[in-house]
Amino acid sequence: MPSSHLLIIGDRAALSWVVTEQRMAFPAGRAQAARALEEGDEIFLYTTRGCFRNPTRDLGRVIGRATIASPVRTLDEPVVFGERTFPEGCRLKVSGLARCREGLVLRDLVPRLSVFPDPATWSVRMRRASLTLPVTDADLVRAELEPLLRPYDEAAEGYRWQEPVPG
Predict the structure, then answer these.
(1) Most CB within 10 Å of its CB: which of 53, 101, 123, 136?
(2) Domain range annotation of the chain
(3) Helix, coil or strand: residue 139
(4) What single DSSP character describes residue 19?
(5) CATH topology of domain 4-159
(6) To the nearest 5 percent, what fractions of the chain are helix, strand and coil?
């Protein structure tokens, strides 16, 4: 049975690449955890407060839903964002996206999610590339996110940008 995961994205250039290329890449130090993701697994795309470089204004949000469309493998050409290299990756099939800078504010759900046993320190669990969600947590995130999603073709254009990000 497929599992569900939050894919945690903390950089706007990486987010644009993930959404427009429908791919995910992982740093070398996260390769073992990344390989736990399997083709067919459900993915919720999560952008951190710092993703758009303004954590005092932006909130961490679940912004999309996807399926892992290929096994995680070592890439022929590593993906590079800034000074970070991401040698592992996989393809995604994005089924829905919230409009850019919109989506489900995760902290509002934290008290109801079992993956965060201590709501006061929930953000510590988000310092990774992905977080596996228990079935009941995935059901809750999916139900809360669904009304905010638009078809990929309608929303993806809002994630394509050149520096600087508008807004």
Answers:
(1) 101
(2) 4-159
(3) helix
(4) H
(5) ph1033 like fold (3.10.590)
(6) 30, 30, 35
